[in-house]
Amino acid sequence: MTVGHLVAGIDVGGTKTRAVAMDAEALIVGDVRSSTDAAGGEAVVASTFRVLTDLAELVGIAPGAFEVVGLGIPGVVNAELGTVRHAVNLGVDGHPVAVGPLLSAAAGVPVVVENDVNAAALAALALAAPAGTEDLIYLNVGTGIAAGVVLRGRVWRGRRGLAGEIGHVVVDSNGPRCRCGQRGCLEAVASGATITRRWPAAGGRRAAVALFAAAAAGDRDAIAVRDEVIGHLARAVELLAFTLDVDCIVVGGGLADVGRPLLLALRAAVTRTGREASLVEVFDLPARVHLAPAGAPLGAIGAALAARRRALLSAERAEVG
Amino acid sequence: MTVGHLVAGIDVGGTKTRAVAMDAEALIVGDVRSSTDAAGGEAVVASTFRVLTDLAELVGIAPGAFEVVGLGIPGVVNAELGTVRHAVNLGVDGHPVAVGPLLSAAAGVPVVVENDVNAAALAALALAAPAGTEDLIYLNVGTGIAAGVVLRGRVWRGRRGLAGEIGHVVVDSNGPRCRCGQRGCLEAVASGATITRRWPAAGGRRAAVALFAAAAAGDRDAIAVRDEVIGHLARAVELLAFTLDVDCIVVGGGLADVGRPLLLALRAAVTRTGREASLVEVFDLPARVHLAPAGAPLGAIGAALAARRRALLSAERAEVG
């Protein structure tokens, strides 16, 4: 067994943590999940270490035998230092928590930290983009909304690791109050949380899936809510596309569970704009919009890809030095 | 005279063309302007060649003695081929016009073509950004609105040269009809053309300057228009900042003639948002907003900088090869 070439990718969410083991051919050879202990930095590190241990046990190695571990985590990440802050759903405030060094010390393995949406964007590039794509924006529509920007095949983090945090751009100044205090943030009008509030699903079905099904069946209220949400997401796709003119925009997150009806609705919404505005036509936006593959743990896979890449870079530097 | 090291930078506008000659120390040693013949591709090339000839005469050389000529032009530019299309104000439609090769043949000098706002963004990096800045967005608010994106010191053009074309992102779906056909495009609610329509200035004074003066003097209508325009521009600054998390956002174009009152109003508008949204605070947006230097011909200077850089790269490649 090529134990030395296994990397782990861990996606720490507000309620669940998912981890995959990836071999040298980028195949997933192990996959575990567990609940997150979101009571602040130490608790998060401890529950992450437990998941890593479970994963290691599953693939038959010690946690320290992974070549490198990638950790995808919400909040503002300093990838150089391996710290995170402003991860509200994990109980982490503005003070940086050294999740990377702490997990590394506990497990005896190098740890690479990446923002969870940025990690998912790397996975989207590998799994959802047309071959040859180098520039991509991953738009994550889950409880919140954020984007991951990949340029020339690498994550663009920005000056303070905040690139892609578009969830609180105001898109409707008369819209509902957002938890951040503003009115009509993108997140307040088009996130999974908004859909759940406006279309509470019964019987364990996901709200967005239920909404799209009801709209397809002709329910007028459902059609109105769906079209409003899609309209806002189409504007978000446009602003990202117009700012960076990237090849490919992949929509993922909980909303992507809706599948093809979501993709068709989004493509139609950006097409309408394309028909009306001449310069906008050149963008050919519909052809650039894609959906994340259903069910794939993008965050965990992307964390593993980020870790492998960083390990390769370090190895190259070591050879040069 | 170090004739061999002079480069020319030309900024072709819908009504005027401006050209500067720049020496090896990036000092402007010549500056001419003329009206643009905007009746399609050939007319534009002919009037651009006349301006280049005037500039050459001014600095005492033949047009062909410039080391390289940089051409900043509105529309969708293919920098590789030196072509432009969709430059509505120049009478250029969707068919590419080879402005670079045509001007090069006429003048007997290499010509580098860059979108005008992208060129201005390079000049903004050199003239308006804090020392050490590598990543910058230049937001041009003139008759229209567009942005130039500079990452790691280089223009980010995107897949089809469309990066930064945010003028037709819808920011107010109930807003006025835009010339593009949509309602409430950024350009329809916050451009110079919009200000001129809503606050027609008398006596040759610029509309935006008159508007800000009237607002400062307490005119309620002026305050309302000013605050609405500034609000929309603040949202544009936010969406650009949140997407790329760049160090520096420079506002230029005709609106920048307003000067310090514009800068203060914009900083206050993004500050308000910062106070309300915790994650947004981390951006420290007000500190990132700057104004283009008054009166500097950013487009022409940027075109010269783009030309010089391309010439240096070619020289390096030639040496390596």
Description:
2 copies of one chain form a homodimer. Chain A is of the alpha/beta class and 321 residues long. Helix content of chain A is 43%, strand content 19%. Chain A contains 11 helices and 12 strands. Chain A has helices at 41-59, 99-107, 116-127, 186-190, 192-198, 207-216, 220-244, 260-276, 278-283, 285-288, 298-320; strands at residues 7-12, 16-22, 28-35, 68-73, 76-78, 83-85, 111-115, 136-141, 145-151, 154-155, 248-252, 289-291. In chain A, a hairpin with a 4-residue loop joins strand 5 (76-78) and strand 6 (83-85). In chain A, helix 1 (41-59) packs across helix 2, helix 3 (116-127) packs across helix 11 and helix 6 packs across helix 7. Chain A is globular and about 55 Å long. The model of chain A has no long low-confidence stretch (mean pLDDT 91). Chains A and B meet through strand 9, helix 7 and helix 9 of A and strand 9, helix 7 and helix 9 of B.
The helix tally of chain A amounts to: 11
Taken in chain order, the helices and strands of chain A follow as EEEHEEEHEHEEEHHHHEHHHEH
Mean pLDDT of chain A: 91
Beta-strand segment tally of chain A: 12
What's the arrangement of strands in the largest beta sheet of chain A?
A: 3-2-1-4-7
* Percent strand of chain A: 15-25%
- What Rg of chain A, in angstroms, do the CA atoms define? 20 Å
- In the predicted model, the low-confidence regions of chain A spanning at least 5 consecutive residues are none
